[in-house]
Structures are given as C-alpha cells and as structure tokens.
Amino acid sequence: MRGTATSLAALATSLSFTPAHAQTAPAAPAVQEAEQAPPAAPAQEAEAQQGDIIITGTRIMSSGFTAPTPTTVIGEEEIARNAQPNLFNTVIQLPSLQGSTGAATGTFSTSSGQQGLSSFSLRGLGTIRTLTLLDGQRVVGANVTGVPDISMFPQLLVKRVDVVTGGASASYGSDAVGGVVNFITDTRFTGFKANAQAGITTYGDDKQALVQAAFGTALLDNRLHLIVSGEYDHEDGVGPGNFGIDLAGDRDWHRASTLLNTGITNNGLPQFNYRDYAQPYQYALYGLINNGPLQGIAFDANGAPFNFNYGSNGQPLGNGRVSNCFPGNSFCVGGDLSGAPGSGASLKSALERINGYGRIGFDFADNHEIYFTANVAQVKTSNQPSPGYNRPNLTVQCANPFLPQLIRDRCVTAGITSFNFGSSNGSFPDPKVHTDRRQYRFVGGLKGQFDFAAGDWSYDAYYAHGTTISDINVDTIVLQNRYVAATNAITLNGAIVCADAGARALGCQPINIFGGFAPSSAALAYVTPENGPFQHTRLTQDVASINISGDLINLWAGPLALAFGGEYRREFYRVNADPYGAGVSAISPNSPEYPADPLLNAAQGSNWAAGNYKNGGGKYDVYEGFAELNLPLFKSDGAGSANLNGAARVTHYSTSGTVWAWKIGGTWETPLDGIRLRAVTSRDVRAPNLSELFAAPTVTTLPNFNDPFRNVAVQAFQNTIGNPDLKPEIARNTEVGVVLSRPSWAPGLSLSFDYYSIKLRGVVSTLTADQIVRFCFEGNQAFCGGFVLDSPTQGGNFINVQPFNLASWKTSGFDIEASYQWRRPLGLPGDFTIRALGTHVREFLVSAGIAGVDTVDQAGANTGNTPDWKWLAVQTYSNDSFSLTLQQRWFSDGVFGNQYVVCTASCPTSTANHPTIDYNRMKGAFYFDVGGSVNVTKAIGAYFKVDNLFDHDPTPSPQTNTGLDVNPALYDTLGRTYRLGVRMRF
C-alpha cells in the first residue's frame, strides 16, 4: 500500500487555485430535517427572510403549514463540508438512499449505457422510482430510463437539497413512488464565488480536479437579476487491474470469491459452495485445450505446451469436466488463476464533466418575475469492462500450422482432427467503453405572488425543453465470427493464411492463439475494426406546467389552504446503432465502413462479442391535473393544533390510459412540550418509461452460462426487449411518525421516529436469464419457448427476457433521526453539533407474480441494495476561524441472499426458489471520514477531507461467473481518498 505522505504530496502538487472560503456562519447540523432544523441554520434563516417555506412533500406553500411527509434537507454548509467532487456523492450518504448509481457502479458492463450516470434511488426501489427535480421542475433524462444525471446540474448554485422520503405522486407526479429529491438553486445570488479542489486515493489513482465559479448581479434598481456559473470536473477513475486477481494500484482485497455450482441438486450436499480463488477451467491466459483426449494442455506466452495446473487437485476427465471441481459453472479452487478476467475491470469510470448555466430574471412588477434559464452540460466517461477476449468454446483444427508439432503429433496418436479450446486472449488489446452525454435544457417561466381571498397566493408557470444526446462507442471489441475465421489457419502456397477463402477476400489475416503472440495490425483491423459498436441516442422532453397555491378562507384554527395546477409533458427518444450490432439489410460492398460479409448476420446483427446495440424509438404524451387542500382541524392551548392534508392527481398517458394518485395525512402538534405526531397514506403511480415500453433490443453476452439440461457451460446471448403493452405501477405508501423538536428543557435537541410501509403492485420487471431456463428445467412449460441452448452454430444460443406487470414488492421499516446543538460548548466560541440518521429495512419482499416462483425477501442481502441497517453520524465543531467535522458511515452484516437454504449435510433438494448453500454471511462495513476548514481571510479559506480514513476494504460479493467479486452500490471500492481545496466568496 502506498504511504499517506506520498499521496498527500501528489495531491498538494495537483492544486493550482487560490485557497477556499470556509463558512463563517454558525454551523448547522450536517443533515437536517426541514421541520426540525435549529433556528440558527443559515439556509432556513434565508428562507424566513424571503417569506418562503421549505418544501416538505407538498405543493402548498402556506405560511406555518407543517406537512405530514418527512423531508430531510442538506444545506449549503453541509454540502461544502462534505467536499465531494459531485454533489451526488453527498446526497447518497443519507441512509434512505439505497441502490443509487454513480461512477463506481456499472463499470463491469459493456452494453448497459449507464456507466458514470449519477442517479438516485430511495428505499431501494430503483432510480426509476425516485423523482429528481431541479427547482421543482422535471429534467430531461440522461438515458432512455428517464432518470437525469446529477452531474449535469449547476452544482455551485445549489443552496439546499430537499429529500422527501415518501410517496409524493399526488403532489409531484409519476415516478415519486420512493420519494422526491429536489435541488433548490439560489435564484437571487449576487457576488462572486469559486471553488477549486483536487483529490487522490491512497493508492495514487483517481486523481481529481474540480474548478467551479459563479457570478450574480442585480441591475435596474434590483429588478433585473443575472446569474452565470460554470464548472469543470475531471476524475481519472480507478482501474483496470490485470488478469488473475491483481487489482489496480496495490489493492489486495480481490480473492475471486465465487458461489461454486456443483450442478447436483439432490445428493444431500449443498448445490452451491462459497469459495475464494475460483479458477475457471474452460480457458487459460494464452489458451487451454478443454475437451477430448488432449484436455488439460495449456500454452505459455512463448506458445510452448504444458500441463495446466488445475485447482482442487483436479484432473481433466476428457469430457470437458475436471475431477474434484464444479461442473455447474466450470470452476475449480486455486491453481493457475492467471487467465481469470474478473480483476481486469475498472473499479471506477474515468469521468469528465463540463457545466454551464445562466439565469436572467426580470421583476416586471412587485412580486412578479419573468425568467429564463439555460443549462448546457457534457459528461464523458470511459471504463474497461474486462481485459482481452474471453472465448471458452473455440474448435481448433489439428492441422493449424501455428499449433506446435508436439500437439499435432498428439492429435495423430489420439486419432482426432480437432479439439475444443478456450482462451482469455491475453495478448489482445483490452476493450474500452466511452460514453458522451450532452444535455441542452432551456426554461422560461413566470412566478410571483398576489393577494386573493384570505391571504397571499403564489403562482409558478413554466415551459421547459430539454434535449440529451448520448453516444456510446466501444473500442477493440471482437467480431466473433471473424475471430473464428482468423483462428482457423492453413498453409497455402507456403504461406499461413485464413482457411476461409471468402474471409481472405475481405481481409482476413490469421491469428496465432497458441501463446502470447500479439495479432498483426492487419489481423486486428479485420477482427476488431475501428468502426466498432456504437449507439447514438437523442432524447427530448417538453414540459408545460402551472402551479398555484394560497389561502382560501380563514377558519376557526387557521386558513384553509389550496394548491392546484396542471402539466403537459412529452417524452421522445430515437436510438441508432451500428449495423453489425443492430442488423440492417443495408450492409453491402458499397459501404466502405460496413462491407457485406457472409460470416456476419446482416439482418439480425449481434455480431460483436459485446455491445450489440439496436435501433429503436418511441414517445408518449402525459396530461395531468392536481389539487391539494390543507384543512386546520383545531388549535388551542389545551389540545394543541392539528391539520389534515389531502391531494388528488389525475394523469392520462397516451400509452396506458388514465390513472389516479391521491394522498391523505395530517399532523398534530400535541400540548406536550415539543412533541408532534404525523401520518400520511397515499396511492402513488409510476408509468413505464421509454426504455420499458419501446426498448431497442439489447444483447448481452453470457460467456459461461450454465445449461442445466446438459449440465455444461455454454456461451449464450441474452436478448432484452421492450413491451408497449405495459401499464403503470401502483403503490400504496403509509408513514406514521413522532417528532420531538426543540423542547424547552433541551432547546438544541431534535428526535424523530418514522415507520414506513410501501406496497407496489404491477411492478415492471423481468426474470433473469438463469431463472427462465431453470424454471423450464424444473418443469414449468411457460418458460420453455423463449430460449435455445443447444444451437450447433457458434453463438446461436439465446435467452429472451421481456418486462411484464407481473411482480409485486413490499417493503417496510423505520427511520430514526437525532441531533443536538450546543452553542459555546464548554465556554468555547462557536457551535458543536452531533447528528445521526438511521434506516432499518424490516422487509423487502419481491414476488415475481408467476406460479411456481416464490417470494424472496431482499432485506439484509448485502449483494443488493437494502442492508438491514444503514447509519450516518456527523459531529461538527465550528467557529469564525475554523471547523472540524467527523463522519461515520455504517451498514450492518447481511447475507448473500435470503432465498438460500444453508446446510453442509443432509440437505433438502436444491431448487431455483430455494437453492442449497454451505455458507451465507456477508459482513457490513464501517467508514470513518474527517474534514476541516480554516479561514485565511473573511473571503478566502482552505479545506481538506479524508474519506474512508482507515482504508476499509470491501467484503467480497460472490459471483456465479467470472466477474469481479464486489458490490459497489454498497461498499467503498476505492479506499482512502484525500481532497484539498480552496473557496472564495466576494
């Protein structure tokens, strides 16, 4: 492991900006609930001065209203103290955020298109069930799932983030099943502020540089407001490592941990066995004969044959299997691991983002503004999904002239003319995936206040147009049938050439796959042409919206408040892909980039080893209207005060018809000192997105898929397709809570406890390819028509997966929050604040809705997103000169999956619903962070941050294939990270 001093020196060298401004105002809690924030919090004070109220899961903005839905607020100071290169990284630390995606997730993927996409997931319900807003407005999606990329937001202008942890579809619309994350920008910012930051890990990688600046001014007697901001962020990313188990840098935690499949379900022993150092026995780094009488002969870098060192004291059996090893997914334990590709994937995507934002607002009358905003952003990422080219099922002719004479002689002795061969192709160039997302968003609107009926009313009307252009390009991916042709060599007129005359005519050059001989440039140009897989996507979103709220009439306990409005939205996308992947009849000799090739499937495509993108498109329109009422019930010294809040929204989708959402809830400010009760229940909806409805078919390569009918591993393609007949998902959310807020006997204390329950039916979901095949194997004929696993042609095997409204989910648990703030602790100047937030997931039941498929509880499965417990604790001391913050992030121990039956002997029959396993525990993690700042002048200050101070390694998340054994959605995969920065504000 590299030393701390080395990393800090490198970090200091990379800084090239003036010192930062440390916040000089009294510190607010690190994360604060909107209804419980101490009175000194600057963000809340600013709101009070402007006469606004913090959004708390409702459209009603009536003064003094307290909403029943819990809302957590991250203020400007908390954002600054966390010192992250992306605001997204600060928000996802909240325990209620589970399963969000970012630069460290999706890096093992070639075809997903979600690498580096920063999007939120509340309650573990997925990013598509969390509504993310910018100033209360929808944002065009960054890919066809419809989720926006937080990296494209104007982050330096964000003054707070409101996180509504509960169903809010009636107030905000579709997708708010898990809740709402609303970024609020400072629309009245004046002055100049800037931030520069550099970062590096303790392993010397993921070097990061961030520069942000914003300027605002007021003209024409404070009626014209101009704001501009810009930012640039570059993050090197982490990885890739090498073949075997060597990760990037000096990280030593990868152990190739795998669930080994015996393939036997009824012998009294567990079907799956948890083991470290799993060795794939179908291929080796430079080639391995994996079947027949010569099975077990491998080749070194010089092409010399040797006897492969199988793990588990295994011996080749000549039939493709190895004694003492695991035929279900073709693994041994230990032995020669040099060809295992898992550690060769990136741990974090490299990322570069540029953001420009501008806003002009003109007060054409008192309390009435017309405004226009423009946001232009670009985010580019790159990752390596795996090294080389893993090919476990190649047929090699014994007459191949590259084959050593010794092996040709062995073929003659054995009476064979060909053999099966597997290779990691360690001498091949490594594939790289590059994404480039560009977003153009423009908003024009009117907002203001006016007197009507019983008091002040407010309105906000806007039109927004957003466009996202997304390009994915993959470098050095193999065209599979061309690879096969290039490896099938013969001698012709004294020269080694490709055996297929047609392939030779189109440029085929032979490849020596027996050893570490790099292919010639001509051979690589034929097998991995420069015009590799690509996908070009254009998404557009048009939104016209109006919202009005105010007090209708003064009643016995306060005003009756009303909010109402309507919205029109149009979502559209079109995607185009390369013809070798998408398959089009236009491939012809007249196309120099994509010439006709009889070896390739021109009609269906899917010719690449990975990255077989498809063409497609779709659109839908949405019309909706809503109304929300807040009725005060009573208010007295003896009974306290209470209100009832209700809302309803009707939405018409052009694809699926009309659907209703509603909510009803209330709060009771009890006469007991500081105690408030709150409750809400709601019907929430999520309409299927463009991808689910009209997805261009995507093809994923499954190189080592287990065929249970023959008990062998095969290469197959997973075809994922859309379903235009999908209907909206319907959820029932219920929350009940109690709050102790600043009682007179402890004015710095805030406590809250909230129970939640979410029942979701008609969930748009699919079974995995393995489940589809397994259920057919176990006798469920409904699953038998959508796959082929015994195709005689290379790559002919496939499994079709498609979404349906069959599944149902149920999750419940509770949130706990506590904080205390001391002013002038022990007589010292400044404030000391402690705060803790925790979420406990009692259950997360997933039912496929299919006969014969049992419900699975995913709570506590640390291979997923919902650990039993997740906590965030923060302690901060600050004064006018400096601040110091300690932070702890923790989640509990768990299991690989609750569906497993643990046993070591006398095991029941193992099934797809309840497979048997010998070990089923997965440790949680504890991360300790420290940060601080110091004022250099009143306007300039410097800061530092160290994340994962003790460099805690992730717990293995065992795979059933050759992937990297880690779950980056939960665990820190980068290790200790240092950041230094400067801020200024004038």
Description of the structure:
This protein is mostly beta strands and 986 residues long. It has twelve helices and 46 strands. Mean pLDDT is 89; it is low at 1-56. It has a 22-stranded antiparallel barrel. Strands 1-2-5-6-3-4 form a six-stranded mixed beta sheet. The chain has two domains: 64-241 and 347-386 and 433-475 and 533-951 and 960-985, TonB-dependent receptor, beta-barrel domain (Maltoporin, Chain A), CATH 2.40.170.20; 258-342 and 387-432 and 476-527, no CATH class. The chain is globular, with a radius of gyration of 30 Å. The protein starts with a helix and ends with a strand.
Write the layout of secondary structure elements.
Layout: H1 4-14, E1 32-33, H2 42-50, E2 71-75, H3 76-82, H4 87-91, E3 130-134, E4 137-138, E5 158-164, H5 169-172, E6 179-185, E7 191-201, E8 208-219, E9 224-235, E10 258-261, E11 272-275, E12 278-280, E13 288-289, E14 297-299, E15 305-307, E16 331-333, E17 350-365, E18 368-383, E19 391-397, H6 405-414, E20 418-423, E21 432-452, E22 455-475, H7 480-487, E23 489-492, E24 495-498, H8 501-505, H9 521-527, E25 534-555, E26 558-577, H10 579-582, E27 616-636, E28 640-653, E29 657-669, E30 675-686, H11 690-694, E31 698-707, E32 712-720, E33 729-741, E34 749-765, H12 769-777, E35 787-788, E36 798-801, E37 804-823, E38 831-847, E39 856-857, E40 869-878, E41 882-891, E42 901-902, E43 916-917, E44 925-935, E45 940-947, E46 977-985
Parallel strand pairs: 3-6, 32-36, 42-43
Antiparallel strand pairs: 1-2, 2-5, 3-4, 5-6, 7-8, 7-46, 8-9, 9-17, 10-11, 12-16, 13-20, 14-15, 17-18, 18-21, 19-20, 21-22, 22-25, 23-24, 25-26, 26-27, 27-28, 28-29, 29-30, 30-33, 31-32, 33-34, 34-37, 35-36, 37-38, 38-39, 38-40, 40-41, 41-44, 44-45, 45-46
